[in-house]
Give the backbone structure.
Amino acid sequence: MGDDWRRYPFELVPGDPHFVFPAAEANHPACESDTWFLAGELTGDSDRKFAFLTIFNKNRPGQAIVADFYTLALFDLDNGTYGTYTDYDMPSTTKNSDVPPKLTVVDEHLDLTYDSGVGTAVWRTCRDEAGELLPYTYDVTFCGTDQDGAEMRLDLRVTPSRAPVPLGAAAYNGVVECFGQATTYSYFQTGMTMTGTLSWGPVAENVTGTTGHVDRQWFPLVANDGGGTGDIRFRAHEWRTINLDNDVDLSIWRQFDRTNGNALQPFSGATTSSPDADPEYADDIEVTVTSYVRWPESIRTLVPPPAKARFMPDRHRLTSRKLDLDLTGEPLVPAPAHGLPLEYMEGPYRYRGTFRGEPVSGFAFYERSLALYRAWELADVLDAAEPGEREEVARLIEEQR
């Protein structure tokens, strides 16, 4: 690929019009669902460590109904705390059909704005002095109020240092099955250079960072709409983006059929990104969960929960023979739950282990929607519980039988 990707137009997957940049970064009007993710690790002038994530989600069922949302979360890595904010734009929150959507997008290049109740969030491709687009260079402004009412704001100039990578590498070329939709399109991009300012309540810092990722997904139909079952929890997933200190980055997807004993579903596997090698795909990722964390009742999902007590996978080990990979992941912030339509926990992690025989460590974001609440699932939680927690988990199992 060389440096071809640094200039527009660029074909990530030759012959596939879905992956021609800059339009690939932008809105896909033929798709009912389109999602933009940006996340990263930041260091303040005071050497304090932070992280952030943001989601812009466009959902237009039947191309006629607005059902969008926007999420911002900030993480204090030194103190293990976080703030989260989600704003919805749905028929129940729209007074009449003449009200324009809160989310505005363009089709030619990346230019997003979302007008929430606490400000306007922006993610926009920069331009040079002649007005031409600067490839993969963004100005972003993200704003919100955390669950305690503190104001959050992040202003950054963001520039990736690596080419975009199609999910699944050459084995899939970015066209995968996700939540039962066989023609879901996805790519990711890592190596973010970030500079700007962060404010969160009384905290105000200049910040910089080099670890982060962009992730893009767009679906022909609304994502995770229940697949005809009427239950949006019919599928669940795990997604990790891991930035290792040997310059290899990993995007790891796993999907589960909640109607069939949480059986692993396609697309599941790991895709690599590195500065000096072609992307690889490995379909043999194994995950062993060693602890679970309870969903905090203070964070409410849009769709009412199926049970009061829900648990998410937490500490774990992941391995792959194809990649000669063995990593152990631990959270940097406990139980980072967000107010999305269903149970959605995502936050910063630290991984340590080996990759191809060499010791490695890395910063990551780990996202999961695999909420365990059925009695047979809680039995796994009980098996992994510490001695001091077993009595409480056993009581919850009895209550939910």
